[in-house]
Protein 1
Amino acid sequence: LKTVSVDCFCDLDLLSCADDVFSGKALHPKNSPSNLFELCLQALEVHDVDAILLASGTEHDSGFIKELSKHAKIIGNTAVQIEMCKNKEKLFHIADKLGIPHPFTKRARTLNDALKTAEDIGYPVVLKPAFGGGGIGIRLARSPEELEHFYEKVLSVGDNETLYVQQYIRGINASTSILSSGDEARCLTVNEQIIGCLLYTSDAADDMQCV
C-alpha cells in the first residue's frame, strides 16, 4: 500500500514510513481543524486516494469527517458514531450495561459542582473538556486549589459550559489500536506513551532543559 500522511506535528516516524507527508507544523502554526482539512484537500489533489483512515486529532470533529467523506471513502467510524462517542455520559452508560469497567466520571456544570464531585471521588481527579479527543485540554488536579486554577482552562477547550470530573486511575500511560468489524473487535497494538517533560538543572549553567 502507498501511504500518504496528513499530520499536525510532522513526527519523524511518519517521515520514515509514509510515502508522502503533508504537515501542518510547517504550513499552519495554529493547527486549527480548518487548516487540517485544507491539508487533506491538498493531499487529495496530489494523490489518487482509495480510502482515508482517521487518526488522533480528527475523531472528535464529526463535521470534518462528513466533509472529508465527500472526497474519499472513510475507513472506520462514521460521523454518526463519532457524534455518539462524544457524549461521554452516554458512552459510560453503555459501558456499564456491557460490564466494561471504567473510571467514575461525572459532568459538572459549575465550579461548585466540580469541587463537590472531586471531594466525593477523592483527590487527585482528572478534569476533562465536555468534548474532544487525543488528550487535549485534560488536567490533573491534586487539590481544590488546583481544580479552581484549571477549571476555566479546561472549560474553554470544550463547550465553555460544562466539564467532566473523573476518578484518577494510577498506572502506565498507554495507547491501544483496535480494529472492529461491528461484531468483533481485536486489539492490534499496545504502546506505552511517553507523556510530558523531564526538567533538570544543568551543572554548567543555571537553566532548565526539557527532554
Protein 2
Amino acid sequence: IRKLPLALKWMIQNEEEAEGEISSFAALCTALSATIGTGNIVGVATAVCAGGPGALFWMVAAAFLGMATKYSEGLLAVKYRIVAPDGHSLGGPFYYIEQGMGKNWKWLAKLFAFFGVCVGLFGIGTFSQVNGIASAINGFFDPDNAHCVKILPFLGEYSWSVVIASLILTVCVAAVLIGGVKRIASVSQIVVPFMAILYFAFAIILIICNITEIPAAIKVIVTAAFTPKAVTGGTVGSMFVAMQKGVARGIFSNEAGLGSAPIAAAAAQTKEPVRQGLVSMTGTFIDTIVICTLTGLSIVLTGAWQVEGLEGVEVTTYAFQQGLPFPPAVSSFVLMLCLVFFAFTTILGWDYYSERCLEYLSGGNLKHVKVYRWIYIFAVFIGPYMTVSAVWTIADIFNGLMALPNMIALFVLSGVVVRETKAFFKKQSGK
C-alpha cells in the first residue's frame, strides 16, 4: 500500500540502459493480457451469485495479499533470470526454484513447468477462453440459433456466428503467435490498455448513473461479508462460502501465486529486481481492485445477482442493460466486445507462458516450441466445439497444481525478497 504510488509511476516509466527483451510496461501488459480475461466479467458474476455480495469484499481483501505475492514473484523472476544463447531472457518459477533453492530442487521446477504447459493447452489458455468468445458472439448475433450449419457428420449443428468467429479468431491468434514474444507484447500494449479503459469507462458511467445507490450497496457488501444471512436470507450459505467464492474467483482472475506473471516479468528491460516487482504488483491492483470491483459493484447496484435464471455473463449483461443510460443492444454489444478482447489477449498471454514452460522442460529445444505453437493454434480452432464443463474442472485442478511448487519457492525464498527490498530502498534513500 505504501509503495503503490511509486509502483504506478514506474509502471509507465521505462528504465534506461537496462537489459531485457521488452519494456517494463510491455511486460506488465503481457502479464495483464493473460490475467484480464473472462474472470473479470464472468468470474465476478459467478462469485457474487454463488457467495452473495460479500464475496466481492473478500475478493478485494485477498487482492491486497495477492499484490504482495506478485511483488515477490516479479522480484525473484528478474533476480534469477538467465539469458539464452540467442539473446532472449528466460525466467520464472522454474529458474528461481533451480537457481535460488538449488539444483536438488530441479524436480520441483520441472513439475511447475509441466503443469504450466497443461494449464496453457487444456485450461485457461485455449478451450475456456475460445468458448467464452464464441458464446458471447453467438449470444449477440444469433441468440436463437436460427442460422445453423452441420460442419462434420460427428459434430452437432452450430450457428454460423460460432463457425465464422472460430475461423477469424484462429487466423488472428496464428498471425500474432507466429511473431513470438515481441509481437505478443506489441499487440498487448495496444489491446490491453484500450479494452481496460473501454470497460472502465462504461462501468464508471453505470456507477455515476446509480450514484445514490452506492452507500446502500457498500453496506450490503460489507454486511454480507460477515453476516450473509442478514442480506441473503441464508440462501447462499455462510460467511465461509462468501469468503471461499470471493478468494477463489479473485485468484482465478489475477493469478497471484500461480507463478504465471513472473514468466512475463523476466523479459522486462530492467536492472533492478525490486523495481520490476513493484511494476508486477500493479497488475493485481488493476485486475482485481479496479476492474473486478467495478464489475461487482455494477452487479450489486442493479440487483442483477438476485435475478433468477441468470448465470455467468448473463448476470453482467443484465447489470449493464439495466444500469447504463443506453439502449440494451448498445450495452450488450460493448460487453460482448470487452469479453472478446479480454479472452483474445488471455489466449496470447497463456501461449507465451506455456511456451516458456516447454522451453525449460525440453532444455531449450525451440523445435519443440514451434511444434507446440501449431498445436496451440489448432486447440484454439477446435475450442468452440468442445464441451467445457470438464475442461473448466481440469483447468481448476491444473491451476492448483501449478500454484503449489511456486508457493513453496516463495516461502523458501522470502528471506531473499526481504534482503533485496531493504537494500534497494536504502540505496534509493541515499541518492
